[in-house]
Structure formats: structure tokens, C-alpha cells
Amino acid sequence: MSCLMVERCGEILFESPDQNAKCVCMLGDVRLRGQTGVPAERRGSYPFIDFRLLNNTTHSGEIGTKKKVKRLLSFQRYFHASRLLRGIIPQAPLHLLDEDYLGQARHMLSKVGMWDFDIFLFDRLTNGNSLVTLLCHLFNTHGLIHHFKLDMVTLHRFLVMVQEDYHGQNPYHNAVHAADVTQAMHCYLREPKLASFLTPLDIMLGLLAAATHDVDHPGVNQPFLIKTNHHLANLYQNMSVLENHHWRSTIGMLRESRLLAHLPKEMTQSIEQQLGSLILATDINRQNEFLTRLQAHLHNKDLRLEDAHDRHFMLQIALKCADICNPCRIWEMSKQWSERVCEEFYRQGDLEQKFELEISPLCNQQKDSIPSIQIGFMTYIVEPLFREWARFTGHSALSENMLGHLAYNKAQWHSLQSKQHRRRGSAGGPDHASPGTEKAEQTAAAEGHTP
């Protein structure tokens, strides 16, 4: 039986867990190579991190042999695979949507281009299928299904694969975040300064990249993977580790679903490469690189959107904006996203503390407050990028709306921070927002600790 059949159908089972581990060790690191020559990772190739490995090797300073790491990580990922495919009936009942919920979801989709679109409500109305429902709708409204002659069943299957490869237990990097970024990308693609130049291929690339840009995210950042000697850090030589994985996983799903199999070979090659360029642009370590290029273009007034290269660059900028647009949402949604991303940071910090690793910047719940993290993120990452985006759009209504929300939300976090300081002062506790906090936030942002 082929390795693929083992992964997808789960039909090889042994009584001994060790035998199972040995059997599935092939699954985690198999990479597919198609006609394009671009390596693609098999679905589910990002195993959950088995922190027992860290516990067993903390004092030795190593994470064990590469073979052992791959075996145990793949074993753990295997047991995370679909329980239905392994013949295990879930205990929770299947909740089907009634007509009222479907009607409300359809009504929300009619306003999907509004910036106050509530992705959390939409996810509840679609029973946790916000990403699939949203993408099917957007592909249809943008005419992509007709233009590229896509099979609707195949498209749905591909989108389900993408949605299922997001980790639902992540507070932040999950399918709802992907849906939120996709909705923001849709709004940016409609900006008058950009929309009139976009081709159907540009639109499809933008939406696909937004939907898949964080697929299979483990809930920890790149520095964590590097210092725990994770095999993906070795595979990608510590360079854009997560982004490379998101891209290669996307290629694997595109090929497995055969969504684009009917298109010319040269076109599929181009789509795969351009998706990679877009997803890799979301690496926070490249923030200054893209910001400097955008500032130079705007200063020189040399952007020619008739040119495919310049359009692709602005798609990269649009995706970067969509990925970090949470501080530009209305306060109620922005605050919820902020709490979610900080919860994910704190979980990483707790794991690092448990296994006697150095706690990463912004991941120490006792020292790094949510207001201080968010103020630093807004000041050093979000504001500079969105100011330049507003310049590009000619200060469109949407850009001004986002900057208004950003200023209001930052003021709210400053107010909450002041209240925290007063409470700590009256209690005689330490003031964690020391003068060095902002510098630490800049350093953390440079190291990829921002959402």
C-alpha cells in the first residue's frame, strides 16, 4: 500500500504504538515534486510539536536524533488526522445549519465588501465554515469560476482541505484568521486605484494567497522552531520557515485536489511561483524591505500598474496589509483579535518556561501586557505600512477609515495601559511597562514575534 493511502485512509494499523510510529514516519516529511519542479509538501506535513521531546532533552541541550524527531512528530500528526477516516465516530453531534442561520449568512455575504464585516459572527452562522463559504462566494462574484473554468465540486474540495489544515486549537492562527485576511484582501482588491488594473489571475492569486498564507500554522513562531531544532527549520535553513511551509503545503493541496489540472502547464507553473512570492512576503522579517520599496515607488511616482511586475508588488503589499489589519478594525473586533494573538504568545511562553527554554520576547504573561504589546505593534509595524498604503490609494475612504480606527484603538490601549499602571501602583506591584519595553517590542517585531 502506498504511503499516500496510509495517510489519507489510515488503513494500516498495528497493535503496538511503536509500530504505528515507524509506519507513519514516512508521512510527515514526504515532499511531492510535480512537473513544475517546485517541491510541495504533502498535506499534514507539519506535525504537531511533541513537547515530550523537549522535556527529555532539556538538560542535554539537544532534541535527539533527526530520525527520532521525525518519527515521533509524524506519529503525533498521524493521530491528529481525520477521526472519521480512521473509523472513529466523534462523540459530539453534527450540528446542521437551519434556514435562519443560512439566511443570515447569505445576508452578511451581500455586505462582504464592508470594512465592519464581522468575521466572528459569520463563522458562527456558517458553523465554523467561514473560510470555505467566503471563498466560494468570492470566487463566484469575481467571475473566477467561469473565467478559469473551475469545477465547483473540485473547488469546494480544495477549500475544505485548506480549512481543515488550519489548527482550530490555535487562538489566533486558525481558519477564522485566514477568512478575516481574505475578506480584507477582497476589500483592498476593490480599491479604485488598484481595481481597474487587476486581471482575473491577479484577483485569484490575491484571494488564494490570503486564504492559505498561514495554513498548517503550529501556533509558535520561527525562533521557537529554530531553538527546538524542528525539522522544518532545518529543511528551510532557518529562512522564512513558516512561510515556506505554508506555500509548499498550498502547492501540495492544489496538486492533490487537481483544481488547476486543466490549465496549461505554463500557467500552473506561474500560479505556483506567484503564490509563493505572495505568501513569502508575509514574513515579518521582510517588513522593512517591502516598506522601503513602497516608499521609494511612491516618492519617485514610478509605479506602473499596467506592468505585471508592479501589480504583483502591490498585491504583496495588499496581502501584508490584510495580514496585520486587525488594529484597523472596529474596536470590538480589534480587541478580540489582540487578545487572541497575545494568548497564543503566552501559550508559547508557558511552554518555553515549562521546558526550561528562554522565554521569547512578548511571550511572558507576567511581564508583557496586552496593551503594551499592541501599542508597540501598532507604532512600529502597523502605522508605517498603513500610512504608505493610504498614500498609494490617494487617501481613499477605506484607507482613512482604517487609519481612524487605528488611532482610536491605539488610544484605547493607552487608556487601558494607564489603568493597569495605576492599579499596580496602588497595589505596590512592579510596573512591567519599563522604559525598555518599546525597544523590546521593536526587537521582537524584527525577530518575527508579531502576529
Automatic annotation (TrEMBL):
Q: Which UniProt keywords apply?
A: cAMP, Hydrolase, Metal-binding
Q: Name any cofactors this protein relies on.
A: a divalent metal cation
In terms of CDD domains, this protein maps to: HDc
- Positions binding Zn(2+) 1 in this chain are 177, 213-214, 323
For the region Disordered, give the residue spans. 418-451
Q: What is this enzyme's catalytic activity, as reactions?
A: 3',5'-cyclic AMP + H2O = AMP + H(+)
Pathway assigned to this chain's UniProt record: Purine metabolism; 3',5'-cyclic AMP degradation; AMP from 3',5'-cyclic AMP: step 1/1
Lineage: superkingdom: Eukaryota
Q: Where is the active site?
A: 173
Question: What name does this protein carry?
Answer: Phosphodiesterase
Query: What is the scientific name of the source organism?
Result: Dipodomys ordii (Ord's kangaroo rat)
